[in-house]
Amino acid sequence: MKVGIMGGGQLARMLALAGHRLGVHCLALDPQPDACAAPVAQHIIAAYDDRNALTRLSQASDCVTFEFENVPHGSLQFVAAQAAVYPPLSALAAAQDRLHEKNLFRALGIPTPPFIAVDNCASLAQAVAEIGLPAVLKRRTQGYDGKGQIVLRAASEIEAAWLRLGAVPMIVERFVPFERELSLVVVRGRDLETAFYPLTENLHHDGILRVSWSRPGDALQEFAEDYVRRLLDELKYVGVMAVEFFQVSGGLLANEFAPRVHNSGHWTIEGAETCQFENHMRAILGLPLGSTASVGCAAMVNFIGTLPEIGQVLAIPQTHLHIYGKEAYPGRKLGHVTLWTHDRRALPTRLNQLRALKGGDRARAFRALIS
Amino acid sequence: MKVGIMGGGQLARMLALAGHRLGVHCLALDPQPDACAAPVAQHIIAAYDDRNALTRLSQASDCVTFEFENVPHGSLQFVAAQAAVYPPLSALAAAQDRLHEKNLFRALGIPTPPFIAVDNCASLAQAVAEIGLPAVLKRRTQGYDGKGQIVLRAASEIEAAWLRLGAVPMIVERFVPFERELSLVVVRGRDLETAFYPLTENLHHDGILRVSWSRPGDALQEFAEDYVRRLLDELKYVGVMAVEFFQVSGGLLANEFAPRVHNSGHWTIEGAETCQFENHMRAILGLPLGSTASVGCAAMVNFIGTLPEIGQVLAIPQTHLHIYGKEAYPGRKLGHVTLWTHDRRALPTRLNQLRALKGGDRARAFRALIS
């Protein structure tokens, strides 16, 4: 079996590694000659809208998937005319536009922070007056890892923010003083078999995910599953999806969803019976899903911008390293480590050991988890 | 980092997959254009004694290892003049010659079944008279998966067996009516840090391993570790090694050792904190070892000659599939499945479900495990 992937980054790489175990070869279309999935997949070096390349990908694959939201929608439509595409294009379309996404949550009765669509600077000022400060201004499209958004703390900042984000259609949301950031990773098969992973607690810094840890048995699991199930049904979803929530006053507000495998599910490689990557492959190929039950306790720490010396990381007991083989530059996700234990009480010690390694931003990110 | 591997079969494939997680690229030298490691490693298609290819492998690699015992010793000596080779060549030399191997066990005080070296048909007849029947006649070299050996049940079979095995130097051993077949997989780092996996119980049929299952806490663990430690010390060993034992009257007799990752250690991918493949990579690269502690209970079943329909396999709860991407022919190892549970009592049910799938030889192999 062959699976085509739009994108050749670390998510495609980990999908391809999971695929090999199942006897599935991946093809990854990515314009970067050094795409990090290339050593484990057949790499088609081409622009995302190169129709010849898209045809090659479609014709060689039993089905096609994608590893990032910003795949040109037209390209996927072109592929979908020639091959099965999972998750469905409707999910991608919703995730590509924050207004569409938030309206979908609202229509499904999934609570969100209050938001208003804004199309010019005057409507932004009016929306901020309505919503209150602080507020978060977000471009409707092309945002990831905190890019394309600005926190507004004073009315005087509105115009500069509007211009800085490109004076394009945006939404403005109330800034939510959340208790926790949680995400729920779910997988649904072609036959609608559905399996939820335990909730994940996440810690972001500068808009980039830093640390995730599994929360099996969390009191909010059922609430989250109920919301996510509405989304799956509405979108006729197939594959892995991640939905990010803010916990506020003991309830959940949906922030966004990703129609793909997700950084906050990386801990499942060691911490769940079947990881998100294998389950995505199983789902889109029409194979039975694997158990999403957690095994032990896992915490995942991203390496952003720089990599520590790997011998030092591996010297910490129960660390599991994942290096993506990418060239380093600031803000780039270069790898992650999963700390895995039988006993959650051992995690803070391990995290402290990891924190002691070079890399200041990690130290900050760990504080909340350790305290 | 780069690791060169002599051989491009499923062991090289699983080493390469483990390597990618650590950011390590493998190069696999294998004369077969369709070597199953090729999709996940840089494949050097060349004969094992092609000196230009061996030089390319050596110069491109931080260190070189091997995935099978029958690598030409001269080739590895040639490589060792240009690159670090682990495990040491002395271990390979011992494992390549059953007489050398058995003499080594004897010299180290590791019990073995009684054996005698034989160089011609007359000395074989004499040895059989001394050792008694049934006995096992084995070529000293080039044996694997039960090839190169014959069980002698009557004196009248001696001459035919001698000729059938090629009238080359052999050993004849007493046939041991063992209670269990066990193997111990161990890893030792360049700094001599040593970690033992729990004992594995194995079931062979027609000389090929069929089923392995982990035996954490087995009463014989310490005995086995004591014997294996002597071997590691004598050979100044680095890397993963597997030693196969027969359990007889509650004690252990060493059968053979493999200076490499081993089929009876495949269950460690799911059933141990760090699998044998990753630990071999860590060891030979001078990195700290990972924990070899078991996680839950695991049983591994080989797919020999034919593959079942993979959807049927994955429909059995808690199965983990490993397909090697090899062309099918009788007696060939094409893949394996690990059954993993929290609770050993669930294993027989899972095995029965697997047994019910097409493939008669598997049914036979499971009987002992299930009963």
UniProtKB/TrEMBL annotation, chains A, B:
UniProt EC number: 6.3.4.18
Keywords for this protein? ATP-binding, Ligase, Nucleotide-binding, Purine biosynthesis
Q: Which BP terms does GO give this entry?
A: 'de novo' IMP biosynthetic process
Catalytic reaction list: 5-amino-1-(5-phospho-beta-D-ribosyl)imidazole + hydrogencarbonate + ATP = 5-carboxyamino-1-(5-phospho-D-ribosyl)imidazole + ADP + phosphate + 2 H(+)
Q: Which residues form the ATP-grasp domain?
A: 102-285
The residue stretches assigned to a coiled coil in this entry are none
Which Gene Ontology molecular-function terms are recorded? 5-(carboxyamino)imidazole ribonucleotide synthase activity; ATP binding; metal ion binding; phosphoribosylaminoimidazole carboxylase activity
InterPro entries named among the record's database cross-references:
ATP-grasp, ATP-grasp_carboxylate-amine, ATP_grasp_subdomain_1, PreATP-grasp_dom_sf, PurK, PurK_C, PurT/PurK_preATP-grasp, Rudment_hybrid_motif
- Residues annotated to bind ATP: 98, 138, 143-149, 173-176, 181, 204, 255-256
A Pfam family the protein falls into: PurK_C
Q: In which pathway does it act?
A: Purine metabolism; IMP biosynthesis via de novo pathway; 5-amino-1-(5-phospho-D-ribosyl)imidazole-4-carboxylate from 5-amino-1-(5-phospho-D-ribosyl)imidazole (N5-CAIR route): step 1/2
Q: Which GO terms describe its cellular component?
A: cytosol
- Residues of the signal peptide: none
User: Per its UniProt record, what Gene3D superfamilies does this chain match?
Assistant: 3.40.50.20, ATP-grasp fold, A domain (3.30.1490.20), ATP-grasp fold, B domain (3.30.470.20)
Broad EC category: ligase
Q: Which HAMAP family match?
A: PurK (MF_01928)
Q: Which PANTHER family match?
A: PHOSPHORIBOSYLAMINOIMIDAZOLE CARBOXYLASE (PTHR11609:SF5), PURINE BIOSYNTHESIS PROTEIN 6/7, PUR6/7 (PTHR11609)
Q: How does the record describe its quaternary structure?
A: Homodimer.
Recorded family membership: Belongs to the PurK/PurT family.
Q: What does this protein do?
A: Catalyzes the ATP-dependent conversion of 5-aminoimidazole ribonucleotide (AIR) and HCO(3)(-) to N5-carboxyaminoimidazole ribonucleotide (N5-CAIR).
**What is the protein name for this chain?**
N5-carboxyaminoimidazole ribonucleotide synthase
